[in-house]
């Protein structure tokens, strides 16, 4: 009786999600983080708000310091919301850093993914090039936000989408400032068929023979004024494929085009609504999953979103936080 109880408790603790690693410095202002480690060891964190806020730190755990805005004048894209930029994604291709950002209004399809370039990532070093050609209007089959650049087989691809038929992918030119073909040729890679199709924030990652498509599902924002029913908040899920463009399936074999998705991280304890995720390899800590979340002990507003990091392994071919 006692031994069975002990075993049950051990198993329950083993299955529980671990807390985020400790973070020092400015660990808020972290909505939709994108993380890059420069060759000199400096970490750069880009986030939604403040015309793409830039924070830097000597290590992934900080201490983080706010540096300023990547695009202090907003975007040159002529769409509503070009002074309130969202969902940055930063990648290095050869010697240039590419910052992808979203222009749009909340709950609207009048959207576009823009790009800026820099050779250092420092404040005042970014040149805005405007639209990548990934744009949407009311009635489009997708919503052109939440871009994520991915490399595969010597080519470059952009994962994108939010609600409105969910996630898509399109090939990018090299250098990756524009799309190769018309945006109408974009491939749908994930879809939740039941309303409200709450899936967004794609992040592609290759491990071994598989391409993993991470994404956030549920309600992302404004928890302080419109908290969803339990389980309706953000969580991080994944599907995988042997091809960068799918078809993707989850751990149970469910198609990612039919609502499939294996949960990687969700609310637990004082951590609420984790999402806006990415993956990076740290020279000391190894492979890491990073994301934003609400610390319920502090507050639920978007401005109070915290920067979270957990160690990540691929156990049995599927990602698992540690």
| SSE run | HEEEEEEEEEEEEEEEEEEEE
Beta-strand content:
35-45%
Kindly state the percentage of residues in helix: under 10%
From the spread of the alpha carbons, the general shape counts as globular
Number of E-state strands: 20
Based on CA atoms alone, the radius of gyration comes out at 19 Å
Distance N terminus to C terminus? 30 Å
Q: Your description of this structure?
A:
The chain has 322 residues and is mainly beta. Helix content is 4%, strand content 43%. The strands form five sheets. Strands 1-2-3-4 form a four-stranded antiparallel β-sheet, with no helix packed on it. A hairpin with an 8-residue loop joins strand 7 and strand 8 (127-136). The longest helix is centred in the N-terminal third of the chain and has 14 residues, at 2-15. The model is unreliable at 1-15 (pLDDT under 50).
Keywords summarizing the entry:
single chain, 322 residues, mainly beta, four-stranded antiparallel sheet, 1 helix
Explain briefly what this protein structure is.
The protein has 322 residues and is mainly beta. The protein is 4% helix and 43% strand.
